[in-house]
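Checked the freezer inventory, then went back to the computational side. Two predictions to log before the end of the day. The first one is the construct we discussed on Monday; recording sequence and tokens without edits.
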Amino acid sequence: MQRITITIDDDLLDVVDKLAARRGYASRSEAIRDLVRAAAVDEASEDRAAPCWATLTYVYDHHTRDLARRITGMQHHHHDLSVSTLHVHMDHHECLEVSVLKGPVGDVRDFADSVVTQRGVRFGRLQIFPDHGHAHDH
């Protein structure tokens, strides 16, 4: 780990301190490291060919005509991207799904867009994580 010195204006330092306090970071350094990591993830996710892992979270009305069938069909059509999906019945009308995806950023983004833009999908969010190809023993 390297130690660096930065110069930062008071207003921006106040933002860092409030973020650190709200999220419970042990130090400003931890807060700044996380901010830089988030920026690195954003930067990496701009390369459509870059490998990634992602979660696609969405809520939909399962009474919308053929929506559940269409979403399932899209998942099957893109089986190469789909690792796993969690399906939760929130109430009589709405379902929550969380899909874990793996593949090129562009393909993952395109798939996510095709799901969340379906009529009857109320909320949708894609979170992309770069795949650095590190092997881990679990």
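The second is the one RB wanted added to the comparison set:
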Amino acid sequence: MPEPTGVIHDIGYQRYTGPRLGRRHVFGALYLHGLRTAFGLGRTAKAKIFPWLVVGVVTLVAAGVTAVRSQIGQVVMTYAQFADAMSWLVIFFVAVAAPELVSRDLRSGVLPLYFSRPLPRGDYALAKLLALVTALWLLLGGPQLVMFLGAAFTTKTGMRGVWNELLDLLPGLLYAGLWAVVFASIGLLVASLTGKRAFAAGGIVAVFLMTTPIVATLSVMPSRTVNELALLASPPTLVQGVGVWALGDLLVPGGQGGPRIGDFGPVYAVVAVLVVAVSVVLLLARYRKVATR
């Protein structure tokens, strides 16, 4: 019987002996990757078209508002009003970005790799959520900064004018953050329910837009209380209700023409917090379920 002739070749494979960065660095890398994904960075040119088209539109609007203000010397749109005016674009941005962040991973079946040590399954969901919140805040806050710079350089009252503009900008950025948190938490939850991006996008748009007719119906009911609570029925109008209560004249100058919420401002704030909290809890529960499959 012939002797075995097999030979084991040493081709230089070695065990990894470098530093193991741990959970915090994995979370940070996942967050940064998610933020880049939301804007199509590091992906094909096709993936960049829509997010950067939205960025271009909101920036162009901000630049136009700034130019008109510099010519007529009057505030055309406050920072908070800008966030309200651009909210419809944010809906479609979420409908595209959220499925890219989570639905692709569900469809490709790579979640078991993510959920292996040292990344707990909850960290994955929170990193994706934080990335989407940041992307939405930048989408609304970046153009507000353009408006601020334009106003600061054209003010006629020196540093006092710049300071007043800063005091107007900060609430606007906080309001943009509210839009970002509410929209991201709901949008990511809906997207996490399916691995098909088209279904996820359609579901997100439906949640945000198809609830609007409910608000319109409740707003014309004979009960004044029902009218003032009508904005609770839809996420966009819920955020507007919180803004009317918290920002007042910065969102509705003189209190004229804005949504009517009566004395229910605190109710709107509590409901907004509950919506975000429930969405995050359900999102974490969803990924606990996915991880056990």
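For RB: Residues 242 and 269 are 5 Å apart (CA to CA). The chain is about 70% helix and 0% strand. Let me know if you want it refolded.
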